[in-house]
Amino acid sequence: MENPKAPDSIYRTYDVRGIYGKEINEDTADKIGAAFAQYIGHGKRVAFGRDIRHGSREMSERMLAALSGNGLDVMDLGLVPTPMVYFTIRHNGLDGGIMVTASHNPKEWNGFKIFGANGKILGMGSGLEDIKRIVDSGMKGAQAGGSVTDFSADALRDYSSTVVQKSGAASIPMHKLRIGLDTGNGSYSIIGPQIMRQAGIDVIPMNDAYDPEFGGRGPEPKEGTLDGLSRLVVEKKLDFGVAFDADGDRAVFVDDKGSIIRGDVSLSLFIKSLARPSDRIVYEISCSKVVEDMIAQVGAVPVPSRIGRRFILENMERERARLGGEISSHTYFSELYNGDDALFSAMAMYCIVARTGKRLSELIAEMPHYELEALEIPVDEKEKHRIVDEARGRAQAEGLETVLIDGVKVIGGDWRFVIRPSNTTPAIRLVAESRTRQGLDKAVSMAKSLLGMQ
Question: pTM of this prediction?
Answer without folding.
Answer: 0.94
